[in-house]
Amino acid sequence: MPVPFRLTTFKHSALCLLISGLFLGGCAAVPVSTSSTAANEPAEVVAETETVRDESFAPETLSRMPLTNDLLLRFLVAEVSLQRGRTALSAQTWHDLANRTHDPRVARRATEVAVGAGQLGLAQETAQQWIAAAPNSVGARQILLTLLIRADRIEDAKPHIEALLAAKPEDAASFFMQMHLLWDKTTDRKVAWKLTDELTQKYPQLPEAHFARAVAMANQERFNDALAELSIALAARPNWETAIQYKAQLLANQSPAASVEFLEKTIKDNPMSLTLRNSLARQLVAAQRLPEALQGYQEILKLQGNNLDALIGSGLIALQQRDFDTAYSNLSAAIKQNPRNVDNLRYYLGQISEERYRFDEALSWYSQVGGDFAALAKKRLPRVLARLGRTEEARKAIAALPSDTEQAKVERIQMEAQLYREARNYKKGVEILSKGLVTYPQSTDLVYDRALLADMQGDYALAESDLRKYVELMPANAQGMNALGYTLLTRTTKLSEAEVLLEQAIALEPDSPVILDSLGWLRYKQGRLQEASTLLKRAYSKLAEPDVAAHLAEVLWQLGEKTEAKKLIDAAVLIDAKNETLLETIQRLGIH
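Below the sequence we write its predicted structure tokens.
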């Protein structure tokens, strides 16, 4: 699927109303919505629109009928019905008045009321009456065109589009750029292409017409034809960023590498275009070339330190690479710059704060999350509250979560057990999970969590048994192999089996810092200190957590690098002074 991008903002033109939806009376036009655009369409067009109204009509078009008592009564019925919410009656009465008067002002009002009442068939008739009474009315044709498109009467819409283009030829370019917004998911793409083809053939000199053709072709999966049309557009306007972005978007469908190559070549000719640089970085992300993408975003930030796309893009890459300081800095800067519609970023910042053991900060971010990410944030709150010692609030947060599905019920059990884990009441946590497993015996989440708490409780036999069951249920899961291998390594003498499991896990996820830590600790137990040091340093560079720091410090201590070991311990204490692995290591090594 092509990477979304924002097209150039077009100033208002009469034709913009075509994509604005239907409107009522003097109310503002409905904002442009692109939620139903097809996958191969440009992702978004922003249009500054306003309601177009014919406030002055040619005198000869106005009705000369006398305002009889009968007409006056009908007008009153129409308006009073509307005010009292009887919209269907009002729409029908206005339709009757338009038929009687043949006055464009009445027909306009009848159309507006019918649209507001949802009587779209009736609105089509009144819009036709409006055009009949005022043939040169641009507003009437706009409304009728929108209605016809909604009714999927695309062929019937064609003469009205032609009339509008003839009336406002200066708007043809912006119309073609927004033409794809006329169609929704139910539109017959072949019919849409036929109309696009017929309309654009009259404007071969307009790059925007070729752009419209490219979009319509792409929506039929005629990608090579679409690319050819974009090449024609770019030949006429070589540095046109919108067409360049869309061409890269279509190329990515066929070959991410080809899209990257095209953008790299284009940027050589437009080295200062931040828009194209951002497009290249996004394509590199899509191609999973994260180091190159991050470098691209960093170059953009050198040119423009507050570039929003680059702040977000680099922040998300840093988060994936567990560079939490950079991720936090860039994502929080993005929110300060543009605080609207950033619920996802607030959620990520909450996660980052958790990873940094800054639970007050995490609570603050999660509490600000709304929209689609609100439910995810609410699931994170109980653990954060528990870590802050606010157990009763954590219980209330758990109780407020939905439990309408099996997964939701399992998650609530996990959260309840987590409260006892944070309180170091491991026995009670194991009891909660054991009770849950009676109801959901095949829940891998509950099995895994009970294994961890059983280990903390000192019930190593149960921990091993649960992890063996987990690996049996999830045979190709690196996390399970690592957990079982680490348990065998630290709680039993089964080092050979632990080695097999950990080597299988690292083969599945060679860059996992958790598995690198386990494998490094195994090498330490086997007396292979240099190899252990190498593995643990790799793990610590990716995951600077107290457990990893404690393992690396102990290996360095045994290698005689006591100063470096103490530095690691001191840094880890600042992160989490209550970490059990860390406290055991400090006591064992006699570090003060």
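The radius of gyration is 33 Å.
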